[in-house]
Design goal:
Blueprint: E1 2-5, H1 8-14, H2 22-25, H3 29-37, E2 47-54, H4 57-65, E3 78-84, H5 92-97, H6 101-109, E4 111-117, E5 125-130, E6 142-144, E7 148-154, E8 157-163, H7 176-188, H8 199-206, H9 224-232, E9 237-241, E10 245-248, E11 254-257, H10 260-271, E12 277-285, E13 288-301, E14 315-316, E15 321-328, E16 332-339, E17 344-346, H11 348-352, E18 359-368, H12 376-394, E19 402-410, H13 411-420, H14 425-432, E20 439-447, E21 450-458, E22 468-473, H15 478-489, H16 506-515
Helix pairs in contact: 7-8, 8-9, 15-16
Amino acid sequence: MDLFEFNEVNLANALSNIYTPAVVIEQKNHFKYFLSYLGVDGLNAKSLLIEHDYINKDFLFDYASYYAFCFQPYPKTCKRVHFWDVRLPDDIIAQVCSGNVEECTLFTEHYLGFIVVKPIPVTVIGYSILKTYTNGTAFGNRHFWGLRNYHIHLLGVEITIESLAFQEQDSVLAACATTAIWSMLNKAALDYHTVLKSPSQITKDAASLANDGSRLFPNKGLDILQICQAIYNSGLVSEVKKADFSELAPDGSLIYHVSHSYLKQLLNAYSTIGIPIILVVEVPINDSYGLHAITVSGFKKEPPILKAANFLEISWLADNIEKIYAHDDQHGPFVRVDFLAETEINTPWTSMHIDSLPTYVRNLIVPVYPKLRISYEDIKVLVLGLDRILSVFFQNIVVGDLVWDVHVDFSVNYKEQIRQSELDAADKLTFLQKSLPKYIWIASCYIGENRIVDFTFDATDVINGMIGLDVISYLPTGFKSALANFITVNRNLFDILFQHQASCNYYDFLINNLQA
């Protein structure tokens, strides 16, 4: 093992190999990104340690699938480069190995993660785990919801950090979509029925042939159907969300993109189950655009604030998302993505382009557990009706706007929230004793920072069934009965709101739950 001070020259040398010299490494987008991410404006790394002859399982699978059959004698072992945000003493290895408690504490508490360097040409960045910037909560600051704990063993010491695995696209065995799936599965595979596979295994799961009919390896990329097939073969299913916004291109044709509001709603809705979400984006390349896949695992969202009453259109708490964080295999982990005008977003591809052309979102691929059968769009239609009822009910009572937070969650998580809430003790006791499905949709209505009511729905049922479960009020006792009476009296006024659900009587569902 070799210990060095963290700087530009040492990082380039550490990420190089016999096929890719430091001068080539310095030209890579990844090197520039890691230099910034780990530098003084990021995690502020001070030391790096190079671990030689490291065996990485993912590369070993890929090596056995492809590189072992090459005439060139590629090694099967990698380098692992570790980072700390303090300057480690020169004898740190000896001190840690001897069990020095003080040095072991320094060694573990200031650890930032590692980057695996594969022994192949150019695409050298392998399995890598790096700390995120400071994490926050679901409201305010950064919220990285697609992370897991990784247990890293070095010199006989176990170090635990929360992150999401990253690696560079291997243009032979894996295209960007394969790497995006691999990062997503690193979190999803914590569930017992989801399987984490190597990039080469994921590519094989996607199809027998490439999308143009040619051989699968070297891989040229996966289309959406192949992405979904690979996800399915790993134990999950996919919800493919299409563009909701159209505009005229310079040549007069229609182009379709995902709007900021819809994108934010979907990220907010599905983030609570913790599975990273794959975005298919259009990135500027030379004088045109190309499709690319990135994996979203976090966002920055501001807390609810009091807004002026606007009862003409519905307001979403998801609109408070200011930026998102994504693994982009062509740049690095937790890349910042900012929102620009209308459907435009700012990514590293935008910054790289000579004319700073924006990036666009074409599709979202949302991996979900098979038992989660009700989609966000199914719930949104119901929430639009609920918002209209509550807006009319509250228009002469409150001065603030009604803002909706709609998301799916594990019922056990929601029960824990209820247990710790300020809900009336009797209502807590009633709700917490109920048997619930594993996954539920929760539509929470806010006025400013105050959560006033939750509507819960069965996420495992069929859409033609009655999926409504409960109405939970955080307002004074008289609210529920007053609202129930209001709905009863004005039933004809709101008759059109739930006509799409003619087989289910949501009026009676609301009245019965509010009167309970």
